[in-house]
Amino acid sequence: MIWAVGGFLLLLISGIPIVLALGIAALVAIELTTTAPISIVAQRVYGGISSFTLMAIPFFVASGLLMEAGGIARRFVALAGALVGWITGSLYMVSVVTGTGLAAISGSGSADTAAISAVMVPEMKKRRYDIDLAAAIIAASGSLASIIPPSIVMIVIAVTANQSIGAMFLGGIVPGLIVMAGLMLGAWLFARRGGPAYRDGEAFTFQRLGRTFLDAAPGLLVPVVIIGGIVGGVFTATEAACVALFSTLIVTMFIYRELKPRDLPRILLKAISLSATVLIIISTASVFTWIIATQGFPAMLSAWLTGITENPIAFLLIVNLLLLVVGMFMESISAVLILLPVLLPIARSYGIDPVQFGIITALNLSIGLITPPYGICLYVASSVAGRRIEQVSRRIWLPFLCMLVALVLVTFVPAVSLWLPSVMMK
Predict the structure, then answer these.
(1) Strand locations in 1-71, DSSP E?
(2) Most Cβ neighbours (<10 Å): which of 17, 131, 278, 419?
(3) What is the pLDDT of residue 357?
């Protein structure tokens, strides 16, 4: 176990890509601490991704890329502007609402952050908004894709925890909306103290709202079909991903007519590349989790935690602290595959619902998307805004606190994540 965990941490600190760190640490540990044949590596690599449910990932990724290229993202921005553009700090509000809408289609935080940044940052600069706070809020808005269905991270959590994907998706909706409301409130309080730049939003009119809603309606139908179909038992998550891709293709090519056949090879190749990155991490992580499980790491950690406290609240505080730190240094899917198989059985022993624990995990790791040194959403937003990561990090406290409040509610008020699944999955 020391070879696996210690080797992995050493390689991770050295800056080696996480997929290599997982693979090398697992190989060394297998050779030095077990008598298992080396063929076990191939078996675990294949077994890690030979899941019908995981087939949903490339389809959701492709759907998100089509959404960005085909005009759906721009129409979501226009609708969000009509809905909340009259509020003080209007462009911050529009970014948050747009991020929530895009999260319900793509499932990818970095993709959503890039899409929002490309549309909103130029306008924010034009109106002289605090661009560092703008990048921080956009990064947090993009990170909502880890919580709001159809989140790719949620799919991996559900598969790893052997839970219903529909229940996990439903469990993320209320926490996601709480984060959205918190970000909007925090941005409004900041903008209220700012100068006139934050008070130049367009007046609210039902005519404008109706026009932008009708324009965005075809794109809005996609998440409704996805979530409704899964929850209603019409199709599985993988089938829902295929429906999402097909629906997005129809909307962007034949309704909006902004996507041309010649654009498809480029988009699909990018989807293949992004999906392969995710799946190779899953496959190598499955080898790593197998070796630490065979070496008794879960039992040792369980004994250590129960030795510290028998109080579920104290356990959740420790887990939140651990996941927050891990999320700052590690990619979300890797963290799920390494930690969830270890922590979930312990959580069950404390009487914590697996769906609630899955949402806690996803929310912690989504906070990691906006915090250095990993913070992929923060890096994307900073890059598009033309700001250094150090500059944007000074403003990250506002969205960080908003997301932390949501995390506290999900952790200590189980109904926040469990009420909707209990009502809809009867």
Answers:
(1) none
(2) 278
(3) 96
Q: 305 pLDDT exceeds 80? A: no
**Angle between helix 332-349 and helix 312-329 axes, rounded to 10 deg:** 170
pTM: 0.85
Q: Judge contact between 91 and 56, C-beta under 8 A.
A: no
List, in sequence order, the alpha helices (H) in 107-164.
109-126, 131-143, 152-161
The whole-number average pLDDT for the span 121-134 is: 87
d(CA 20, CA 291): 16
In a 3-state reduction of DSSP, which class is residue 129? coil
Q: What angle do CA 120, 121, 122 make, to 5 degrees?
A: 95
Among the residues of 295-331, which ranges form H helices?
Answer: 297-308, 312-329
Structural contact between residues 94 and 123, judged by C-beta atoms closer than 8 angstroms: no
d(CA 211, CA 12): 51
Cα–Cα distance for residue pair 246/147, rounded to 1 Å: 23
Give the model's confidence band at 124: pLDDT under 50 very low, under 70 low, under 90 confident, else very high.
confident
Nearest to 67 by CA among 114, 97, 102: 102
Closest CA to 141 of 174, 175, 106, 93: 93
The predicted pLDDT at position 91 comes to 86
Rounded distance, CA 18 to CA 338, Å? 12
Provide the percentage of residues in the chain whose pLDDT is more than 90.
27
Q: At 310, is the secondary structure helix, strand, or coil?
A: coil
Of 132-146, 209-223, 320-334, least confident by mean pLDDT is 320-334
CB atoms within 10 A of CB 400: 18
Q: Quote the tokens at residue 225.
A: 């079909």
HSE, side-chain direction, 13 A CA sphere, residue 316: 22
Contact 42, 48 (CB under 8 A): no
pLDDT of res. 403:
94
Q: How far apart are CA 381 and CA 95, in angstroms?
A: 12
Separation between Cα atoms, residue 64 and residue 257, nearest integer Å:
17
DSSP three-state, residue 220: helix
Give residues with Cβ within 8 angstroms of 84, minimum separation 6.
Answer: 90, 93, 94, 97, 184
- CA distance readout (Å), 84 to 94, 168, 355: 6, 29, 32
385 CB neighbour count, 10 Å cutoff: 23
Give the per-residue pLDDT at 420.
93
